[in-house]
Queue: 2 jobs
Job 1
Amino acid sequence: MSKVSLEEDEIKNKKQASNWKDVLYNELDERLKISEIAELASHKTVPIHKHSIWYYFGGISMLFFAVQMVTGMLLLMHYEPGITTSYASIQKLMNKVEFGAIMRSLHSWAANFMVASVLIHMFSAYFMKAYQKPRELTWFSGAVLLFLTITLGFTGYLLPWDNIAYFATQVGLKIAEATPWVENKTTESWFWPGKLISELLKGGVSLSNLTIQRFASIHYVILPWVFAAFMGFHVLLVQLHGNTIPKKIKETKQYREIPFFPNFIYEDLFAWLLVFTGLSLIALIWPWGLGPEADPLASAPAGIHPEWYFMAPFELLKWMPPSLGPINGEFLGIALFGGVSLLLFAVPLWDTKTEGGKIGRIATYYGVFCLIALILFTIFAYYCLDENKSCILTHDFFPWIVRGFK
Amino acid sequence: MAKDKEILNPDKPEDEFIDSPARRDFMTAAIASASALYAGGIGYIVLRYLSSGVEVAQDVSTLNVKVDKAADLANNSATMFQFGAKPGLLIKDETGELHAYSAVCKHLGCTVAYQSDQKRIFCACHSGVYDYKTGKNIAGPPPEPLDVLKVNKAKDGIYITKS
């Protein structure tokens, strides 16, 4: 058969372009190979079982990222970074710009929900053992995305330049500064990575105009691109490997498969609609506030505390003695929190046996331990905020911690 | 319990979808209009958000601008001044007479300048030329004369208003 007749055959077989939609489809298909992608998508399925609700949280996290991108870009249309302009522009945004307060409220609420959603997604992936071969890279890229989410939260916090933002950033950077290896009074003689990072971020020794500019450029120029790249990689891997089915459910065959497209996509869309509507209602009913303007000479207000997702490490740091032997107490706290987290994120490296067994069970227990510790420390932290309440747990049950292990 | 088993049976085919053209058309229209409403609502909010708080054109009809530099202006020279949101050009010709124009070129909106050596108003963007005594467009692409402003001499200085 000659080449010409082959092409003629192809034309004959093509869908009869009867209306403009078919014409458009055919034209695009010839260039973008839509039908090949559709063919691939038609074979993809998603398992449905009693734990499949957790599959939605990846998509919901992605929705929150999209909301952050859109509202963030819109906020930038009015926001002016700078020590004299940041606060004033946010104030104007809240009071003068139509729907400005809602836009900011959406951005702040979505930021918090995004952290929550990413955490839920992470722990559900952990307990479904979605990190095991061949999904190790999916897990690691997810860990990076969690870190980026929290960093986005931290850098965005400073931008309105209100009182609470000022002190939260001050404390956050102080924690970064406390990461030398051993407490050392003559700091200049040491290579001190924490201090270096902190001063690079601040653009000097104190929070200044440069700090706002640097945080702003990290928050809305650098990190969104990095995040989008990692998210693209993460989602691509999920598409390649499909969803993990928990071992027990797979063994007992207590699941069925539904097509990814359109069934699961429609369900995802419906979940997004619900979540976005819920987010909008919350942002409307409880608009995000703005504290008094940051004043470098004012003292920290009573009961000041970080956002909820930093409360657990915040509480852990309060529990630390000033020093333990030669080791700085703050560094000890950071090392403890960092070490426990690192072991959690490194789980694909030490829980490798897909058939389960002793290590598999240890991994699950370790996850439960981390989750409970995170929740308990967060609860303690909020409980101990009230100065009038003696912090029973630490003072009465663990007095040796208060005394500094003496 | 029996129901659970039924749902989770992997061999059970997809639930039969009760499909009829009328139902399908209705659902399509309903979802399309709900989506349009949703998107329209968000679009409206975004539009209002973007259009508020921005600078609006100032009413120049009542504007009376004092040009402080006019006092020291030598003959055959010019100075720029702010007239509302736009730049203005005040020229003192060789006889000492004052001429004021809006300095916005009528071609594509660049700011024009007085060239004392050639005694003309020139726009560097596309080489538009205006007469310095009348503001009339005399060469190049400008389609019409510059807006002429009124020069008022008061005891304490020179004031410019819309003519």
Job 2
Amino acid sequence: MTTPRASADIRLDGVSKTFDGRVRAVDDVSLAIEPGEFFSLLGPSGCGKTTTLRIIAGFEAPDSGRIHVGGTDITDVPVHRRDMGMVFQSYALFPHRTVAENVAFGLRMRGVHRNVISARVYEALEQVALVGYEQRRPAQLSGGQQQRVALARAIVIRPSVLLCDEPLGALDRKLRQSMQFELKQLQKELGVTLVFVTHDQEEALAMSDRIAVMNAGRLEQVGAPTEIYDRPRTRFVADFIGEINLFEGSWQGGRFTMRDGRVLPAAADGARSGAGAVAVRPEKARIVAPADAAIAGRIESANFLGGQVLYRIAAAGDRHLLAKETNVGAAVRPIGAEVGLSWNAADAVVLED
Amino acid sequence: MNAPGFDPGRAAYYALNGAIIVFLLTPIAIIAVFALNPTPYISFPPVGVTLRWFVKFLATEDFMVALWLSLRIAVVVLLLSMLIGGACALALARGQLPGARLLTAFFMSPLMLPAILTGLALFQVFQLPSVDRPVWGLMLGHTLVAVPYVLRTTLAVLANFDTRLEEAAASLGAAPLRVFYEVTLPLIRPGVIAGGIFAFIVSFDQFPISLFLVPPKGETLPVVLFNYMKFDLDGAIAAASMVSILLALSVVLLLERIIGLKAYVKL
């Protein structure tokens, strides 16, 4: 087993980038990524996550703001002196070189001695389980194998920071899941700081130590996966991550009231007043008798998901609510049944924005 | 599958292909027949097989001097046009130049103009400063019409070039010049060489431009052959043509072998 390598922290201070003088791709982003952290930039396409990664890598220069890695300001350091590993979505393997030559490239650029190169190439290929493929060309490999070569090529230079731009995006679902485990394990083994760009929220939740959710070039929320999922701060985050029931209304005397006057269970933090919104995850909502419910409706559809059943409930005012029940062997509730939803006040997420 | 029936569509397809191949190869076949026919004038049908016209061609000093000159010029044109055309293509595809489309059209324009006009224009250009008709003028003239071939093939490769490859190389520690030599150049090479082969052939059998630019006693092979043909129409002309064809073919095959045109690039 290799010794853990030094990993570096990354700090972005007020980084902005505008393209064509109009589109604000990245808008005043400040971030502090810990050494050895698995950090994801998550958001829909066009949210600025890839541009942020490319700014860290040095492919794009920010219009304003500074980037520090390991305490050093690298904003003006060119790409080839940044010492970061990069894995591209398209893998970007050199098609005219063999697997071994691809992996050796970074070492060759560093003037490492030939004998040392072959030993380290072997070690890197071992880490991605591709020993024996040295003399193949990229075109002769499957997508998953190309992905591993790209990974080996990036880690063989022992970077303190590894940047991944949707590295698993082109793989099929099954392969993606096993690569998620492997990548995460490899990252812990190497102790490298990893910045991971993805639009797949499940992937981000499963792999990350922390996630930054981005929208329209701005950071919406930064936090651990549980925090992002259980305590989304904004409507955007609540809506983007998983499924959620969103209720618009207003705060009056510490109580959340919908427009039709109904009071919903929710715990206000402090003296909140005026318009607001709360959100409830489907698995936190309980299906109860209409009389005991915070909100009543009729079961419109039931999707059996295996471990759970997802109910879609039509409520007053053309609303549709979601509730998930764990499959404990009970019969699926009949469609058309009059039911109600209830939840603990503590499970209602109070959205700030 | 039943017994193979007659498919008129497929038959017509093969017939058309056959006709096109016959059309393209007939002139070469005729040349070959005449080059091997012993009669001292071009006639049909051939009365025998002889190599005397090849011997005559190879033994005539005027032909050999011209052939050697043509070859030297073609090699220089090959190198010059690969250099200029390759650099041009890189600048046009990557340089973010204002008016890149217009510039591309401008550099391609020698292909659109009748070569006889280009030849006349060059003749006048060289007359103005009275530099007469030096051999480098001839090389420049050929290069002018050869560059567009390299430009076009290289631009085609660059249009499909994944710039992430260069970014990957940079992120692995390659300085910009190193990125060029390690990644960009090897990947555009098939395009540059394919264009270079065209350039060689364009120069080697260039006639209209050479006609204006060759000095007396410094004529290229096509011009010498043309002049010879005005007085004699024997098998030596056909033999010369055969030698030209074989030479051009061997240059193509040699380049293929040595540098390899197997494109790793998706074209």
